[in-house]
Amino acid sequence: MFDRVAGRYDLLNSLMSAGLHHRWRERAADIAAPTAGDSVLDVCCGTGDLTFELAGRVAPGGHVVGCDFSEPMLDLAREKAEARAADSVRFEWADALNLPYDADRFDVATVGFGVRNFADRDRGLRELNRVLRPGGKLVVLEFTKPTRPPFSTFYRLWFDRLAPVLGRLSDDPEAYAYLTESLNTFPGPRGLAEKMDAAGLSQIRYTVLAGGIVTIHSGIAG
User: Fold this and answer.
1) Is 54:41 a contact under the CB 8 Å cutoff?
2) For the residues 188-217, what does the mean pLDDT come to?
3) Percentage of residues in the chain having pLDDT higher than 70
4) CA nearest neighbour of 170 among 179, 117, 116, 48
5) Which pTM was predicted?
6) How far, CA to CA in Å, does 47 sit from each of 13, 33, 40, 66, 70?
7) What's 90's domain CATH number?
C-alpha cells in the first residue's frame, strides 16, 4: 500500500494535517535536539521530510540515516536529497522490526508517523532502544485521538466521515480506510508511554499538540 501511495504521500500528509505536518516535524526535531557531529537514525522516513529537518542540525561532522521498507518512498527521498545536495543524509531500506544496525550505534533515533504502522509495536520499540547508545534519545511523532471538543469533534468529522469519502473518490480507497483504522486502534499518549517504558526506555515524556491530534513522545535509552 505504501509503495502505491508514494507519489501522493506528501500531498496526503498536507491534506490530513491541514498543512501543519512540517511544523510538527520541526517541533519533533527540536525535542530530539541532535547536535553537531551526532549520528541520527530516522526510521519509517518516508520521503524524508523529518530526515532533512534533523540533518540541518548535525552539521558539521554529523550524519543522518533515513530508513524505510518502501523503496518508492526511498526513491523520492533520494531525489530530494540530490536536489538539496544533502551530503550528510543517506537513505536505505530497512525493516523497523529487525533493524540492520549494530547496538549502541546512534545518538538519536526518531520515528515520524510510523510507530502506528509497526506490525509489532513492542518489538519495534525494543529495536529502537537497542540501536541507541546508552543515554541516547528516542523521539516518536504520531497522530493520536483527541478526547475533548472541539478537536475531538473535528477528528471524528475528518477521519471517520470525510477520509472515507475521499477514499471512495480516489484510486486507492484502501489507503484511506487503513489510515482511519490505524488511528482508531492506536494507543493514547499514556498507552504509548507505557510501551516505551516496557521496551527499556526511561525518562519518558510527551507533548500534546493541536488539541490532542498529535503527540511527541521522548525517552532515553538504557
Assistant:
1) no
2) 94
3) 79
4) 179
5) 0.88
6) 11, 21, 17, 9, 10
7) 3.40.50.150
